[in-house]
């Protein structure tokens, strides 16, 4: 089995190419779009790195919250259904803690330099 390059190594190579070779030759809108592409690839990289642990942690919280086992998708759907029906509310401390942790994990992936995240984490 081929083990290299990994997905992360490929993403890093493309980011490096754009930043070091392509972007310096671009102007105006194309330079902007190159930065957008680098940011999108960086988000994909973070999703690959952080996503599985974030999903596993969310599934664990959901199992505790809902009181039974299941995969993340089924448990998350059930939480949404219970919230929509009013059976659970965001005022419930356990629900609120889960939602807050899930949002923090998602922002770490999507926008890790977001000032609100740093403030929320006390930094």
Radius of gyration: 19 Å
Spans with pLDDT under 50 lasting ≥5 residues? Answer: none
Q: Let me know the number of strands.
A: 0
- N/C terminus separation: 43 Å
Assembly type of the chains comes to single chain
The DSSP helix count reads: 5
Shape: elongated
Share of helix, binned: over 70%
- Spell out the helices and strands N to C: HHHHH
- Structural class of the secondary structure composition? mainly alpha
Share of residues in strands: under 5%
Largest pleated sheet: none
Number of domains: 1
**Mean pLDDT, as a whole number?**
94
Brief summary of the model shown:
By secondary structure, the protein is mainly alpha-helical.
List keywords for this structure.
76% helix, 0% strand, 123 residues, mainly alpha
